[in-house]
Task: inverse folding
């Protein structure tokens, strides 16, 4: 659910970005995410699991100025399955 604290026109990164991580890749994926410029913590200390059995890392980026570049970078991180941000699709796509 989105509330007014998550809608900011000036920049993204004011709230943690949830990243779903495959369970057999947690430690390496966390290291790769931190190398991408964020600090991560496992939701529920790693005990929280999605319906797919994956864990959620709440990742804090200082500022996300280029969401498209971040999305490309997250796609390249082995073990990251999905994340809580998606760029709007271009009209007609």
Result:
């Amino acid at each position: 659910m989105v509330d007014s604290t998550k809608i900011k026109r000036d920049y993204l990164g004011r709230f943690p970005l949830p990243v779903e991580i495959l369970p057999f890749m947690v430690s390496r994926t966390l290291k790769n995410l931190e190398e991408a410029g964020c600090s991560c913590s496992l939701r529920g200390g790693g005990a929280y699991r999605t319906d797919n059995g994956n864990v959620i890392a709440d990742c804090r980026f200082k500022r996300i100025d280029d969401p498209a570049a971040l999305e490309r970078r997250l796609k390249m991180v082995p073990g990251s399955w999905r994340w809580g941000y998606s760029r709007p699709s271009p009209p007609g796509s």
Observations:
- The mean pLDDT is 81.
- The radius of gyration is 13 Å.
- Residues 26-35 form the longest helix (10 residues).
